[in-house]
Specification:
Blueprint lengths: L7 E10 L2 H14 L3 E7 L11 E13 L6 H15 L3 E9 L9 E6 H9 L1 H4 L2 H7 L3 E7 L2 H9 L9 E5 L13 H26 L6 H20 L6 H20 L9 H21 L4 H23 L2 H9 L4 H4 L3 H13 L1 H4 L1 H11 L13 H36 L12 E7 L19 E7 L2 E6 L4 E6 L3 E5 L9
Antiparallel strand pairs: 1-3, 1-4, 2-3, 5-6, 5-7, 8-9, 8-12, 9-10, 10-11
Length: 502
């Protein structure tokens, strides 16, 4: 499949041995990968000349490898891709040379073609000449065409093909690049410098936030990191704009100061905490790595990676739709999921919490995406997919999600038991909000049907839920649940589990 999108272009000289059949196979492979063949020569001839030993059964191909990733190391990434292709095709092929193809892109100004005769006519009028500049900017004399280039070239382009009266056509600038076309970054370079400036602006803020939540013995480390971050921020801002370097440094440092004030909570709010920073960095890193990985995927890799991931998410979502966290929580308290009767919105939140644990497992493919973007040799794509790796990845996702579910539900149930023993207010858990209550039967105790130990209306119970026609309580003295019909008793709030109900 021809690769229509790419970031880098590398000219690669490949020596293919084996004769006509292998040469044809190599050309077919090049075309399949979207690598145009610019030329081919017998070994010992062509651009490389006698640097290659003459061989009638060898041919040197000059191909253009197109690949994703950064410019640094793209020659190594291109060579690795060609070698893997040759190994998969069982071809005797050798990468002789790889040269990145860098093209310096000029930043040219854009001009609008105008009617010069109308412009000159307006300048002759005393009263219209005062508004001629405003009318020109508003586009009153535009003819509908645009040209790009330096000022003189733009005028020649506008007048080309108009032999009758070339002076009747002129141009007006649509931007200020014509004044200093050299002092502009290319679009990709400007984006890269802006990302670096924002990243450095966060470093002092993060260091000071960590210093505010750590022991004084480590303040020296965070102080040094803050100083390094401030210097890096100023340097990144200095390189942000080709004109006005001081302005860029001041703007970047001001942005860093804003992040610092927000992170420390000096402008109101709770501020940031180290756990929040770790989770945010984890999410951003995983999202960035997966985006870098997915944008490079071929159809084979989509099947190899996306299908297991989609299956995992589908299975997890199906299980979480029944609120596996609530089911485990109820099981730890010897209850059923129906006894909790959690609203759907809380089931959804519990499902999202369960699925959020996949971020830790997705670190592996995210790291792989970053490695491929930087052309590391161990991350270069091959022709075959590792089925065992994908199966292990699938199992790891389920194992981590299951382990988190067991730990989360078990910890919540244990906290509920502890609060019941101490008579304190128990914590809520995704819509389940236990509270202390006094039970007042509306009939004699022996006539009340239900499940669990004998009722004692003189002491408070922990109310788990009232679902349908059933009251679900927790008896802290016997450490067992109690269930009874809702029409056989009425409930009154209690202050805690240490007192009586009268």
């Amino acid at each position: 499949m021809t690769q229509t999108r790419y970031d880098q272009r590398v000219r690669v000289f490949v020596e293919v041995r084996g004769g006509q059949d292998d040469w044809q196979e190599a050309e077919d492979r090049f075309a399949r990968h979207g690598w145009p063949v610019r030329a081919h020569h017998p070994a010992g001839h062509g651009p490389l000349g006698n640097a290659v030993a003459p061989d009638p059964d060898a041919r040197v191909y000059e191909i253009e490898v197109r690949l994703f990733g950064i410019a640094r190391g793209c020659d190594r990434g291109a060579a690795a891709r060609v070698r893997k292709m040759a190994r998969a095709a069982r071809l005797e092929a050798y990468v002789l040379r790889a040269d990145p193809l860098h093209r310096d892109r000029e930043t040219r100004s854009t001009w609008r073609v105008i009617d010069a005769r109308r412009r000159r006519s307006a300048l002759r009028s005393p009263w219209r000449s005062r508004l001629a500049g405003w009318a020109l900017t508003r586009g009153s004399y535009d003819t509908g065409g645009i040209v790009t280039g330096p000022a003189r070239q733009a005028l020649r382009l506008a007048r080309a093909g108009r032999p009758a009266d070339p002076s009747a056509v002129a141009v007006r600038p649509l931007d200020g690049m014509w004044k200093d076309p050299v002092r502009r970054w290319p679009e990709e370079e400007g984006e890269r410098r802006a990302v670096h400036a924002v990243a450095w602006a966060f470093v002092p803020a993060l260091a000071l936030v960590c210093a505010a939540h750590t022991v004084p013995a480590s303040w020296w480390f965070w102080g040094v990191l803050t100083a390094v971050g401030a210097v890096g921020t100023a340097r990144a801002g200095w390189r942000l704009f080709p004109d006005g370097r001081l302005t860029g440094a001041v703007v970047t440092l001001a942005g860093s100061g804003f992040f610092t004030v927000t992170g420390l909570g000096l402008a109101g709010g709770d501020g940031w905490t180290p756990p929040d920073l770790v989770r945010t960095a984890l999410v951003l890193g995983v999202v960035t790595g997966l985006w870098l990985l997915v944008r490079q995927w071929t159809w084979g890799e989509w099947v190899a990676w996306a299908v297991p991931l989609v299956v995992t998410l589908a299975v997890s979502s199906f299980v979480a739709a029944g609120s596996v966290l609530h089911a485990l929580y109820a099981d730890a308290l010897d209850l059923s999921t129906g006894d909790l009767d959690v609203p759907p919105v809380w089931q959804l939140l519990a499902s999202l919490k369960l699925l959020s644990t996949l971020a830790y497992v997705l670190l592996l493919p995210a790291w792989w995406g970053v490695a491929r973007h930087r052309h590391h040799s161990y991350a270069a794509p091959g022709e075959r997919t590792n089925v065992i790796l994908h199966v292990l990845f699938f199992i790891a996702v389920l194992a981590v999600a299951g382990g988190f579910a067991l730990d989360s539900a078990g910890t919540a149930a244990e906290r509920t038991r502890t609060a019941a023993e101490r008579g304190t207010r128990p914590p809520a858990y995704f819509g389940v909000e236990p509270s202390w209550t006094c039970l007042h039967p509306t009939t004699t105790l022996p006539t009340i049907p239900g499940e669990g130990p004998t009722l004692h209306p003189d002491r408070p119970y922990l109310l788990i839920n009232v679902t349908g026609d059933t009251i679900v309580l927790w008896d802290h003295s016997t450490d067992q649940p109690v269930k009874l019909p809702a029409n056989r008793a009425w409930l009154a709030p209690a202050e805690g589990g240490g007192g009586g109900c009268g």
